[in-house]
Design a protein that fits this description.
CATH superfamily of the largest domain: Butyryl-CoA Dehydrogenase, subunit A, domain 3
Strand content: 15-25%
Number of domains: 3
Number of strands: 10
Number of helices: 12
CATH class of the largest domain: Mainly Alpha
Radius of gyration: 21 Å
Order of helices and strands: HHHHHHEEEEEEEEHHEEHHHH
CATH architecture of the largest domain: Up-down Bundle
Mean pLDDT: 95
Distance between the termini: 31 Å
Helix content: 40-55%
């Protein structure tokens, strides 16, 4: 089935490419695009088979996202973030899974993990209040994941959880008006003193230990991977996809471009243009090869029933932020060499450039933090982080 999803996505790429400007103008992915991706099976790739999913290999999911993002950066971003959530829901107690998928296995979830609201322990669960930003694709979702630090009645912090809320328990405020990733509709989520039952909360400590309630029924090795590894690559992959799209657009653009300052020389005859293309291609390939290599190694440990070693987790985060960096460097190199016509609004190169830089601003792409963690690990210094 995974191969059928990949083939179906290839068929819809031209339509996604044509709607890229429409996504920008609407400030959300067009409904037609979401429907096409849903019919293709994109959002079920990592969903448990018990609820109609495919339990695909993570690399297959990332390959699909890279292809989508190469056609439209915003659509790729939303597909990746929303597409990783079925995997996370598979870690929750089955009662939560039944509430989301029991009547509609196509239900989608958006998210905002930064703990900007307040979660307080109450009888039977939690009381949640606050505002969460950057919930990509929230207009296309009927549930949301929200991150929150849990405090007891005395105000003492006791846990850090992801909370699952239905659409009736939150309000979406339209605030998304940006220079990049304009089509993601990453609006704010507002919650006012909502009760969240215990079964709709998942501790980040459990996801880090790879020991979660959902594994009792979802026994595939897929659900024994660290949340931080899968989610961080769900952010870097669409950026690599944008670099791929920018590369393809740049090569086509340069085939026809004539450089006036060089006596009418075609850019395809310019040796320096060829060097930039080769360098950019190498950076994109390096980013992708490290990502797929690391994810394959992660799955190898999971398939063998082994604990995921800390050095590998640290390498995953190291190569994740470097993968984003390499993709950005490649896009910058291509953009700078594309000439004045490529910066006109509506052209794909400038859109990929803006989208990729907007994606670079995501907190998971903080290079110094991830690289410092890796360095600490190499020196034997203890490393503790929720995103490992």
């Amino acid at each position: 089935m995974s191969e059928q999803v990949t083939a179906a996505v290839r068929d819809v790429l031209p339509a996604l490419r044509e709607r890229a400007q429409e996504a920008e103008d609407r400030r959300r992915v067009p409904d037609e695009s979401i429907k096409a991706l849903q019919l293709a099976g994109v959002f079920k790739l990592l969903q448990p088979k018990r609820y109609g999913g495919f339990e695909a290999e993570p690399v297959t999911f990332y390959e699909t996202i890279r292809a989508i993002a190469s056609a439209c950066g915003s659509t790729g971003w939303v597909s990746s973030v929303v597409g990783i959530h079925p995997w996370q829901l598979g870690l929750f107690p089955d009662e939560a899974q039944r509430e989301v998928w029991g009547d509609d296995p196509d239900s989608r979830i958006s998210s905002s993990y930064a703990p900007t609201g307040r979660a307080t322990l109450v009888d039977g669960g939690y009381e949640l209040t606050g505002r969460w930003s950057f919930s990509s694709g929230c207009d296309h979702a009927s549930w949301v994941f929200l991150g929150g630090v849990v405090s007891d009645e005395g105000g003492k912090q006791v846990d850090f959880c992801t909370f699952l809320l239905p659409r009736k328990d939150y309000v979406i405020e339209d605030v998304w008006d940006t220079v990049g990733l304009r089509g993601t509709g990453s609006n704010d989520i507002i919650v006012d003193k909502v009760f969240v039952p215990k079964h709709r909360a998942l501790s980040f400590a459990d996801t880090s230990k790879c020991v979660c309630p959902g594994q009792e029924l979802n026994t595939s090795p897929l659900y024994k991977l660290p949340f931080a590894s899968l989610f961080s690559y769900a952010i870097t992959t669409p950026i690599i996809g944008m670099a791929t799209g920018a590369y393809n657009a740049h090569v086509e653009h340069m085939k026809a471009r004539v450089r006036v300052s060089y006596k009418g020389e075609r850019s395809s005859e310019d040796p320096f243009a060829k060097v930039r293309i080769a360098t950019a291609a190498s950076e994109i390939d390096a980013a992708w090869l490290q990502l797929t290599h690391n994810m394959t190694e992660l799955m190898g440990h999971a398939n063998r029933g082994e604990r995921i070693p800390l050095p590998l987790r640290l390498r995953v985060r190291r190569d994740q932020v470097r993968g984003t960096g390499r993709a950005i460097e490649a896009i910058d190199m291509l953009f700078e060499n594309s000439g004045g016509r490529a910066i006109r609004m509506g052209t794909p190169i400038q859109r990929f450039w803006r989208d990729a830089h907007a994606g670079r601003a995501h907190a998971i792409n903080d290079p110094e933090r991830a690289l410092m963690m890796f360095g600490n690990g190499e020196f034997g210094i203890p490393v503790q982080d929720a995103m490992l």
